[in-house]
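Hey, can you fold this one?
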Amino acid sequence: MYTWFEQSLFVFQWLCVILVLHISLWFVLKRWVCEYAYPLSYPVSLLLFGIISWWFGIFHLPIWISAFPFLLALGFIIGTGSVRFDEIRRELVWDLIFLGFFCAMLITRIKSSAIFAHESFLDMGIIASVMRNPVVPPLDPHFSGGYLDLYYYFSHWIFGALGITTQIPSTIVYNLILPTVLGLAAVSCYAIGRLIFPRFPSLLLLILVIPRPSFFAGLLSGGTIGFIDILEKSVQIIPGTGNNYPYYDLLWGLPHPHINALFIQVLLIFLILLIFLKWDELGFTGRRVILVLMGLTAGFLFLVNSWDAFFFYPLLLVITIILLFRIVSPSSGSSGFCHIYDPNFQSILLMGIAASVIIIPYAVQMHTRALSGIGVVQASSDLIPFLLVHGWYLIIFYLYLLGDIRKKPYFLCLGLVPAIFGYFGVAVMLIPFVYLVLKKDHNIYDYLAGYSIFIIIFTELFYLQEMVDPLSRYNTVFKFGAAAWPVIWVSAFGMVSFAVSDRFSHLASLRQKSIAGFGLSVFICLMLILAPVEPYFPVITLDGAEYLEVYQPDDSQIIEILNADNTATGIVEAAGDYDYHARIASFTGIPAIIGWPSVQMQWGRNEEEISRRVSDVERVYRDPSVTREVMDRYTSSHLVVGKLELLKYQNISINSYGLEPQYMGDSSKLIRKMNVVR
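Sure. Predicted structure:
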């Protein structure tokens, strides 16, 4: 158990390192993109720290020295007298936004910190594995002898490396991830607001907490159903799909790749808008820097959540084509090939090169085998549930296009075609898509909205087949929808800003806007803090394993012993899916023979090998003649006999030859192989 003073110190250390990374990069960036350097340096510095530490992991160098390049840059800046505190004071609003949203999410995590149930053990295991043995690719804590080269682990690596650098326990790092993600996302959302809604930039922060209409429908008709149940049903209102959104994921509390990627998604959108809206203002060097950052960010997005590549990479291709048309002079009369010598054209090529530099080394060591093809949706979404998922921004799109619809109402008939075949969701999305395409003058919001609508239509017609369940479109709708959320809302807010920019310029003074922005930020933070999150275990702490001291004290002792034992190479514990299985491996990062078999199958591991491991674990507990043989085969140094094993295997019989007890509790014991070098 860590005292509140120790936990506060951990948070302080965490924030100090993030601040050092951020400030050091800011002083570098502000030379080229001065006005936008401060919000950019917050997320970009953490991503750069992550990739530097990743390369250090490849060469087996100490991870904590990944902060040295940033410290050297900061030391040089201070030494040359470039630090001006009045400059930092002028940028204080960005720090307040980051810290405000960080603290709001931190309080929410403290109320529900226990690492238990759903996929929390999966995320915890990866973080613990990275922090215990930071090699590339990391060891799979749920598959002894295997590596995480089947799963996009990079977001866990970033925060694990930050945990190593700050010397913070992995069970506390777990609960610091979402506050950091939210704080970084809030900074980029506010930066987007400065670009597209300069009168009220704080409105863009609503992207992080806007619930779907299905949530309000649940509140109005929920009766005695609890808040969390309503929240969960709001993403499952369309059968066979998942329609997650940030507010749900943040309160759900799992630092899973799709929600960890949120701050990178918003950063990429900010960079796209920045290059479009401030092309001339940035100047040649500024444009080149932003395009390189776009490439790097796109590369990091693939590393953090590979599903996002299916959504964002085609979008970047569209953006690149539009940019290429911008730099081609229609009056020049020269051949298209001559434009390859245009410096702006070469800058756009740098974006692709930057992305490749990040992606290729990572992709080479990945062996993902989860997808098997493309399927056709046989049963499309019903109209009412579809509207309860997508209704808010559909209303904005239809209002935005109302003038065009009045001029050419006959194009509404195109929606009848998919409706006749039962694809009602396609019908209501196809109409705004058609009118966006037919618009005479397009802006960046039209492009973003049109692309997002196209992707949603795609998920209503097709899905990516997964090897484990080739008939399910759940993950396609879930992952594409999560990626589309910030893009589609930014486009919706952009449309609103575009429509009202000249009408309400007199509404607010600078002071009134500041008060309104502060009030909205406080309101959003309170939405997170005061949400009635129902903890699995009522323990108020930042340590995700502290509940074990009360509810599973023997397991807590075993985990503490193993975390301090640098000789441990593997664990034998009960095999099974979800619930409390793989708890020791997850909290220590020491690989179990097999953790969650169904997840390993989803990742594409050999089914026969998985079944054999499940059988071998059962034989260890029931057949004393194979105890040592199986442990040697999987290089397992420790064997756990706890309540879960007794419940699952009942009549346990173990050959104690060559083994010795390392811990004997009231209902559990930890057994160690005697020939382990210590």
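The mean pLDDT is 90. Let me know if you want another pass with a different chain boundary.
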